[in-house]
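Let us practice reading a record.
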Amino acid sequence: DFNEDHQGIMADYANDLQSINLDQHEHEEDEDEEEMDELFMNRNNYDEKTDLEEDKQPLKKLKEAKLDEQFPGEVDTPMDVSARVHSYVTLYEKDVPISRFEPAHHLFVTGLLPHEQYSSVLNIVLNHTNDSEITVKSKERLIFHVGFCRFSSSPI
């Protein structure tokens, strides 16, 4: 079982070496292949010459290089910092009056997705409180606040 696990790791390592062509490491790859050939030729002292942690480090570096190549601008969130801190976006708007802006409060910006320009059906149940004596007539124009969106409608 132990030898099969090592052979599986070595096979993955060799596949990753072939899939990523790094010009600067061509000479090092040739040396690694020669060392692996020597290890596979003499299976009796394979465990003595092989360090599992040492084998995992180049594999980890190759996987990180492959991920950096696939997602070049991605930044990982540190474990000790909340993900919310990294998810804010700073917007600079020209014609916002400073008198209306309070730096202590967030400014929420919303927009519509391309498919959200069409009308749809929204089912809402209105409940009266015991204190309210206002009657809502059928087809009376009401203003609805749903999330960040505000719209007026005449419910049935």
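A brief commentary: The mean pLDDT is 72.
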